[in-house]
Amino acid sequence: ARSAWTTPFAPSMCGGVPWYEGAHGYEFVCVHDVRTVVVLFLFWAVLAVLGLCVLTAWTARNRQPKCKAQIAVSVCLLGSTVAIYGLFAEGRRRSHGPYSIAGQYYRSQRQRIEAAAKSVVVHWAWAQLHGIASVTQVPPDEMYEHMVLIRLRSLAALQRRFGRDDALIEKDKCRMVEWLRDNGLRQPPLLAQWRGPNATSSKMAALNALVANAAPRSPVYLKCCHLTQGRADSVLKVSSATWLDTHETKVHAWVRAKLAQRADDVGRPWRTVANELTQSITPGIFVQAAAKQSPLDDVLLMVESNRDKMGSREGVSTGSSGGRGTGGSGGARGSGGGSASASGIGDHSGISSGSGRGGGGDGGDSGGGSGGSGDNVGGDAAISAEDGVLASSPPSDSMSGRARSSVRMATFEIKVEVLWGVAYIGMLNIDGSQMGSAWLRGDVDGTFRLHSFLNPFEGVPLLGRLVPDLDQPSFEWIEREGHVACAFTLAEATACAAAIDQIRVDVIVSQGRKHACVVNEISISSASRMGGHSSFLAKLWAEPYLNGWVTTCGDHNSQPVHSAMANRNAGRTGAVPISTGHNLKNSSRPLSQQGGCRHPSGR
């Protein structure tokens, strides 16, 4: 129950009191009084009633009965508008304050995060956050974006000075999926990949053959290696080989257009520095299978679909065995006994595909991508491509937010923010649209609490209870079947493999498949809305650096993070239970390519 988090509200005012207090800046002294909002609401209501009375008396005295009703209605509407706006403003202020649910959760997790930060080992590249002390000088609502800006500026400085490209672990999706595979982290099966700016006719023919072989009954997704921004529409759904035959011209035009497009973080504070990090990425396309989706009732929940008639923005899949494809000559033997075939087409480019268990081979020239995804997890957590594929409904022609009177299949994703190896919050996302529900850690390890973190009336008496913590009661299966625990464990394992201080891991979950969660993608520059949690998450991210708790490994000569491999057992669901998070980090050996990356205590 939430009562376990509740701290009594003290009758004090916030005027002029700084957000930060003390040398390290994380003691709150600004307390929001619950009576404040009640007084404000009564003030607005009384003001509206008095105004109505005055205008009514004036119209009666001046014998203007015709306009009396109009004036009365106008005053009521004006008063109601002011009152509702005031409630929204006060609700938002309280949801971001120190005694909000987000603030109470921050205090309940602070000791856990401190212990984790003191015990994990962070890669040297992530710890070069120059100017981090400036985070204490920015408004709370801007703290998280400021931390991301500091991170990307530091990575850009390392790239200019030492030629390091650690940012490619996220900014280059092809590198990202290869890194996930190499570290044994469950992800959608990678069917094929090619690099190169030109979409030649031979490449298109090879793509057609691959889709015809890999998707006779279910969809596959084409994804761009070099485009990571949501607004770039960098994912294209291919429903089936028949669908591809019908829309072949459009698909080929889409591929050519995307290969010519460059990444642009427009609208973000870090746009300039992020664009600098992505300019050197070679354009490319890779292919993944579709996931088993879960039922969604559109009558009860009107999801803002980000899909167009060509396909969906979020390509997802489950499974751990590679798909099969063809592609000409240049075959290579996979390390696990499976085989892979590839075709080198054009300059330093090619299409490659793998099949069977074990790692797929490298195809083509230097641009040939990896083949099958290999045996990523094993045991009862392992799922095959045949097992995990379910034909999804065709793209919706309805406009965003329009209700439909049927149950359809949708992709359920939990976006998990991980700090110092500890999963902090998991936010629900459906078909690429962010919901209002999030899961927080409970008082007991392995338990969770729901929080409607986008509730505009949080902290407002009575009204705050009108918004349910779970967007739809039918979503209870997500926690009941153990998917939240699966997502948190997998996200922590991913952060562990990256030896990173903060990361967002997007995990796909499927109803009825408890241990089948898979990583869809990761982000080191997240722009997801987190409501009142964003400033507190930024505090927990920055505090270990400001207090000197961070232990690093490697240096400027170390191998890039996206090329390093950690313990393959790190991603096995059930191998390490949800606990304090940092135990998971300590259970994995240091990055094999960074010899000597150990905690001073010997862990």
Structure description:
With 603 residues, the chain is α+β, with helices and mostly antiparallel strands. It has helices spanning 34-61, 65-95, 101-119, 143-162, 168-171, 173-182, 201-214, 241-246, 248-260, 271-278, 385-388, 477-480, 483-498, 533-547, 582-587; strands at residues 121-123, 190-195, 220-224, 235-238, 284-289, 294-297, 332-333, 339-344, 350-355, 407-410, 412-419, 422-430, 433-441, 448-452, 502-510, 513-523, 551-553. Among the domains are: 35-96; 101-186 and 409-565, no CATH class; 189-290. It is 33% helix and 17% strand. α1 packs antiparallel against α2, α3 (101-119) packs parallel to α14 and α4 (143-162) runs parallel beside α10. Residues 340-352 have a biased composition (Low complexity). The chain crosses the membrane at residues 37-59, 71-88. Residues 306-381, 571-603 are annotated as: Disordered. Keywords: Membrane, Transmembrane, Transmembrane helix.
List keywords for this structure.
single chain; 603 residues; alpha+beta; six-stranded antiparallel sheet; four-stranded antiparallel sheet
Describe how the helices and strands are arranged.
Layout: H1 34-61, H2 65-95, H3 101-119, E1 121-123, H4 143-162, H5 168-171, H6 173-182, E2 190-195, H7 201-214, E3 220-224, E4 235-238, H8 241-246, H9 248-260, H10 271-278, E5 284-289, E6 294-297, E7 332-333, E8 339-344, E9 350-355, H11 385-388, E10 407-410, E11 412-419, E12 422-430, E13 433-441, E14 448-452, H12 477-480, H13 483-498, E15 502-510, E16 513-523, H14 533-547, E17 551-553, H15 582-587
Parallel strand pairs: 1-17
Antiparallel strand pairs: 2-5, 3-4, 3-5, 6-10, 7-8, 8-9, 11-12, 11-15, 12-13, 13-14, 15-16
Helix pairs in contact: 1-2, 3-14, 4-10, 4-14
